[in-house]
Amino acid sequence: MTKVDQNAVLFERAQKTIPGGVNSPVRAFRQVGGTPRFITKAKGPYFWDAENKRYIDLIMSWGPMIVGHAHPEVVAAVQKAAETSFSYGAPTEGEIELAERICELMPSVEQVRMVSSGTEATMSALRLARGYTGRDLIIKFEGCYHGHADSLLVKAGSGLLTFADSTQNAPSSGGVPKDLVKHTLVLPYNDVAAIEEVFKQQGDEIAAVIIEPIVGNMNLIQPSKEFLAAIRNLTTKYGSVLIYDEVMTGFRVALGGAQSLQGITPDLTCLGKVMGGGMPMAAFGGKKEIMSKLAPLGNVYQAGTLSGNPVAVAAGLKTLEIISREGFFECLTGQTQKLMAGLKLAADKAKVPFSVDSVGGMFGFYFANEVPRSYEAVTKSDIETFKKFFHFMLDEGVYLAPSAYEAGFTSIAHDNEVLDAIILAAENSFKKL
């Protein structure tokens, strides 16, 4: 008698009450095909599915689990907080402590407002930028994903790359009015000439430029120094607000985020993922002059019942404490580089066109001869080969992002033994391609 896969059973059941059977599109395995794995538990660098098969996790909840799953110190902090209730709808001292810590680690952030998701953070930051400048236009870049607020779903990255209309400035999602999208200008990532031309023509109308300072939503793409310098200089010259979307990179690529590596001081920064330690927690913050426009001080309204949730704050504070310990990021960065070097060597031995990149605890690999630097270049990588590789690695017990358009993530729990197991799995997988 053939054994029924419990993941398939759960997926079929889920589709009856949940659209597509998932609560976030990329989880459905639509790009790679096959049955999503339903997770039952996780510990350190591993998680287990409904069949009790163990996988080495290389998405780490899409970034937050930088200290590993179920870290005992984080678990203890959450348990202690939960004993006094899950939510108050009123201020707590913990919120102040977390805000102070964020401002300390990111000097560009003078004041911070907490929210519950990255989408809330970017949406609120853009509203604030428009309220501060009195302008409507915003600039984003092809393949960058800033959450699912209407005005940002134009040539967006992440799961949108699978479904997006390729028409210039067409919404990447149904339900987004074209009239709203007209206020969003979309430019190629790493194209200095394009942003210089737009500011020359419409600089006085541009409220904000929002950017992933290291892109993680069309795989891992790094900006050129010239590109970042042009954006900072132009936004300063024309009085536009520069928003760094560090929901993914904040406390993940370095303790001070991407901005600390790049030497750029943004006007506003959006944070999430790591700062909540795996709990629903995000924030936006920046110059006091801009933040003072928020209600109750100013006329830009933003609110949230669960903002600054005490349990999430506890998880975030403990996670930030752990990653601040001496040698943490040196170790994390070294392990991630070691993993990428091992995958590259395995691909070269198998004569498979393959390139790799990493920053801190984020990485990208591409079935292409060179590391892409733009949306267009990413879409030209060998997606069909990625799909095969994904399933071969899954069979070997390694869980990669189920999309060629997503960055990967390591944690401090990915030690040498774990890395060796991943590289061996890759060697076996490359041979089958």
What is shown here, in short?
The protein is an alpha/beta fold.
Overview of the structural elements:
The chain is an alpha/beta fold and 433 residues long. It has two domains: 167 residues, Aspartate Aminotransferase, domain 1 (Alpha-Beta Complex), CATH 3.90.1150; 252 residues, Type I PLP-dependent aspartate aminotransferase-like (Major domain) (Aspartate Aminotransferase, domain 2). Helices cover 38% and strands 14% of the residues. The protein contains 15 helices and 14 strands. It has a seven-stranded mixed sheet, with helices on both faces. A hairpin with a 4-residue loop joins strand 2 and strand 3. The longest helix has 22 residues. The radius of gyration is 21 Å and the shape is globular. About 3% of the residues have low confidence.
Q: What is the secondary structure topology, with strand pairs?
A:
Elements lengths: L5 H12 L21 E5 L2 E4 L4 E4 L14 H11 L10 H13 L5 E5 L2 H16 L3 E5 L18 H4 L14 H4 L2 E4 L4 H11 L3 E6 L13 H14 L2 E6 L10 H6 L5 E4 L10 E5 L1 H4 L18 H14 L4 H22 L5 E5 L2 E5 L8 H5 L3 H13 L2 E2 L8 E2 L6 H17 L1
Parallel strand pairs: 3-13, 5-6, 5-7, 7-8, 8-9
Antiparallel strand pairs: 1-2, 2-3, 4-10, 9-10, 11-12, 12-14
